[in-house]
Design a protein that fits this description.
With 435 residues, this protein is an alpha/beta fold. The chain has eleven helices and 25 strands. It folds into two domains: 321 residues, ANL, N-terminal domain (Rossmann fold, 3-Layer(aba) Sandwich), CATH 3.40.50.12780; 96 residues, 2-Layer Sandwich (GMP Synthetase, Chain A, domain 3).
């Protein structure tokens, strides 16, 4: 934990220092119901961080799931014994035994005890988004979480001499949002905004509510949405992006529009964030201090403090122990008609067509067994017809990957960080293609 007077979180109502936060966490810990694990449903980022800290003090484990539907909560209850949920919203439904938190922010005189947490202790279990199938659970040890937060602060230069204000658009239940907007303020010289910041107008208001220097932590999807408006933002020290590769042209456009620099974080739910880069500076990623990447046989291994060597699902070109190029995900490559292509590359071409606001290629389920199978695509393109999109694709991609059908929809079922969960995309296809 940082110095007692350091500002960790900000909202329209209050400024929360490390001293105030620790006092509130100890009081909430005493009020939490006895349970082995909690599902943290808090929407306010500061409340989420407080619930996380209190549960750690209480010896409980946090379950962080992107899908917080009643169906998903019941599934978690079937998988984990002695489970309760906690939230800051009286109207939030939960089929689990539930605790409604009401934080006490008045800080008594003196400093609360700063806990000494064992580095090897599992304090959270984070679930993948399910973009490639069923959500998978990944236990998180405190030492790894703390080490990566300290390393990120050192890598990006977020030092105590120039404390920054961070506005995040990603939910704290997602690994990216958890690391940057909840854990980072506990270890690096940043304070996190706790109010609403999702739509462009919300983001502008949030940035205007915090002091400079300002950091915007967001996603490629939201950067693109902001660029499609005439949004004027307060001065920004940097924009930080993750969850999907960011196009260099888009990053350059954002830098010109808002006179800032655009940085990217690379990581995975399995291991957290491990590297960063300035997008327009080139393809090479530079690992955080203490993080090493290496090739073993046909796989890439990542080693870091409190993290056993872990296999990376992405295909990378290791330039050195601290530098690499990202070539794509193993699950991203598709082969049709004897030719290979990257799904993310095809999607990038599709969304780069004038008039296409969003879109995704969908590979046929039997494309491995049936090389003559054809792709399909879902598009959000109010001013562009499927025929016009197909004509544009013919000029840009190999004929083997031209979609058999282009289906117009009003929106794609993206989650809060812009990913397309496999089950949601399958349901869309079942409804519109295979009724």
């Amino acid at each position: 934990m940082r110095d007692p007077g350091a500002v960790l979180f900000r909202s329209a109502e209050r400024v929360v220092t490390a001293r105030t936060f620790l006092h509130a966490a100890h009081r909430l810990a005493a009020d939490l119901p006895a349970a082995a694990s909690i599902v943290n449903l808090c929407r306010d980022r500061c409340h989420f961080a407080l619930a996380f800290a209190a549960s750690v003090l209480r010896g409980q484990t946090n379950l962080l799931a992107s899908d917080r539907s009643a169906r998903r909560l019941r599934a978690l209850a079937d998988e984990f014994d002695d489970l309760v949920s906690i939230s800051d919203d009286p109207a939030a439904p939960s089929p689990l035994p539930h605790h409604l938190m009401s934080p006490a922010w008045d800080a008594p005189a003196g400093d609360a005890a700063n806990p000494d947490i064992e580095g090897g202790r599992i304090v959270a279990i984070v679930f993948t988004s399910g973009s490639t199938g069923t959500a998978v659970a990944h236990p998180k040890r405190w030492g790894a979480l703390a080490a990566r937060s300290l390393a990120a602060g050192a890598h990006f230069g977020w030092a105590a001499a120039h404390p920054a204000s961070l506005v995040g658009t990603v939910p704290p239940q997602h690994m990216y949002g958890f690391e940057t907007t909840v854990l980072l303020p506990l270890h690096a010289a940043v304070s996190s905004w706790c109010g609403t910041a999702f739509y462009p107008a919300d983001i502008r208001r949030a940035l205007g509510s915090v002091p400079a220097p300002r950091l915007l932590v967001t996603t490629p999807l939201q950067i693109r949405a902001m660029l499609q408006t005439d949004l004027v933002l307060p001065p920004l020290a940097s924009i930080v992006s993750a969850t999907a590769p960011l196009d260099a042209e888009m990053a350059a456009a954002a830098e010109r529009r808002w006179d800032t620099e655009v940085l990217e974080i690379f990581g995975a739910t399995e291991m957290g964030s491990i590297a960063g880069r300035r997008t327009i500076a080139g393809e090479a990623w530079i690992t955080y201090p203490g993080v090493k990447v290496s090739r073993v046989d046909d796989h890439t291994l990542v080693a870091a403090p409190f993290l056993a060597p872990t296999r990376l699902n992405d295909v990378i070109d290791v330039l050195s122990g601290e530098r690499f190029r990202l070539l794509g995900r193993r699950t991203d490559l598709i082969k049709l008609g004897g030719r290979r292509a990257s799904l993310s590359g095809l999607n990038h071409i599709l969304t780069g067509i004038d008039g296409v606001a969003d879109g995704v290629f969908v590979a046929p389920d039997d494309h491995v067994e049936r090389p003559t199978a054809r792709m399909m695509a879902f598009v959000v393109a109010p001013t562009c017809s499927p025929d016009a999109i197909l004509a544009a694709l013919r000029e840009r991609i190999d004929p083997a990957f031209l979609p058999r059908r282009i289906i117009a929809v009003t929106a794609l079922p993206r989650d809060e960080v812009g990913k397309l969960p496999y089950q949601a995309l399958a349901a869309l296809r079942a409804r519109l293609v295979d009724p």
